Amino acid sequence: MPIPKGVLTLDDDGTIVEIGRLSDETESTEFYNGILVPGFINSHCHIELSHLKDIFDKGTGMSGFIKEVVKLRNGVDVEFREQAMRNEMQILYESGVSAMADISNNSESFAVKAESPIYTRTFLEFFGTEPSQVDEILVRAEELTKKAKEFGLDASPTPHSSYSMSPELLRAISRAGLDSGWLSYHNQESWEEEELIQTGTGPLANQYRQRGLSTPPVTGRPSLIYFLNIVESTQKIEDERVLLVHNTFCDTESVESATSRIKNLFWAICPLSNLFIHNALPPLELLRRHNAAITIGTDSLSSNSLLSIADEIKCIHRYFPAIPLTQILEWSSYNGARFLGIESRFGSFEVGKRPGVVLIDNIDFQKNLLTTESRSVRLV
Questions:
Q1: Greater model confidence, 150 or 69
Q2: Where are the beta strands (DSSP E) in the chain?
């Protein structure tokens, strides 16, 4: 719980040596008006898409969003893309992000992440709708994993989503990811995805057929259950950490099935991105009722106007006012650190940890909420 007039004592490298309450002021005491929180863990980002800021249309749905990604992703030169990534990584760090789970489809972001003080685990995301592509994609996955590790990055392959992969590729890439101990998976982000998997119809199905692409098998059940069945057909998910990202259209059947089958399960939410693409939000009360380990991400600047955990928290306040700030702050730091397996250093204020210290200002202390004027800034 919060400590009013709390005091953190740090050594020179930012390690916490004492936590207490203000009693005696010393010359070294620094005072801040607001709340101090551990460095944020951004549990879902696509930093390599930073050059797409402010050029996508809102409310297009997933099929429209995919069209814009295909059309605009490589619309500027490599130097511009790299500078955009560096700028956004610096903004993330200064606003308090200490660690991040980042998606990469290529190697362009590797040098930028390697140079940053933010700890990053890179999820090398693959997709492909044709079974004939599997062997070629597995070779690319191995090559890209090796290249990421040459930059000193923790990295492993991960599947994109059920609608963008053949069953064969979904199974193969999931196996490779789970062998590393981690999996990050775009889950039930759109109603189009659910319609495609359950009935074989809808905008995504129409778009795929127009492009001559194969579609996944029709199951009549939620796409998350399709994913779990595919993965567990060859490999049991035991102690590996699995992150389900977005979850905008997940339902009770999906949540109950996943929580009963995966031990170390985490649910990443990116509310501002979900509003941008679908004008919809994940069912947070449903997830809370099932004691889900929720984390917070920003997604990319193709579907968000800024990469700010503080602004994601304000969005949660606006649409889910009953959720306590203390719980949301746990989502913003500790749960993300647990997913990444770095909770011995990050995620909470504990003696011996070095999580970073972030100030959030302009707090409504009567209601214990961030306000529209609240901003986060790194102090340590």
A1: 150
A2: 6-10, 16-21, 35-38, 40-45, 97-104, 119-126, 154-159, 182-187, 241-246, 264-269, 293-296, 357-360, 363-364, 369-370, 376-378
